[in-house]
Design goal:
Layout lengths: L2 E4 L2 E4 L13 E5 L6 E5 H23 L10 H17 L1 H7 L2
Helix pairs in contact: 1-2, 2-3
């Protein structure tokens, strides 16, 4: 699933989600650095979790190859991170400010 209808709007998803993941049930996520928490629909929480996982993997890949984080030859990996961040900036600005900014 690459799009979802939420609150009467069609949202383009940055990653594939299964039917079971694409629900609007509310859940909470906590920013590990600030300790702030915020509620968001389950599908957005899964995208947030994916962004965090992809970011960690890209950082590890850069570190393992001795390259500067985000300025490496691994731009395909970093683009996947940016795709998720841009999703939040476009559709969930408040949640973006709490969790990712």
């Amino acid at each position: 699933m690459k799009a979802i209808e939420y609150k009467g709007k069609k949202l383009k998803l940055p990653y594939e989600l299964t039917e079971g993941e694409a629900t609007a049930d509310m859940t909470t996520r906590i920013n590990p650095f600030s300790g702030q928490s915020i509620d968001l629909p389950r599908f957005a929480a899964i995208i947030y979790d994916t962004v965090i996982d992809l970011n960690l993997a890209a950082e590890r890949k850069d570190s393992a190859t001795g390259q500067a984080l985000g300025f490496s030859d691994n731009q395909d990996d970093w683009q996947k991170v940016r795709d998720g961040i841009n999703f939040f900036r476009q559709y969930f600005a408040k949640e973006y400010m709490v969790l990712l900014d």
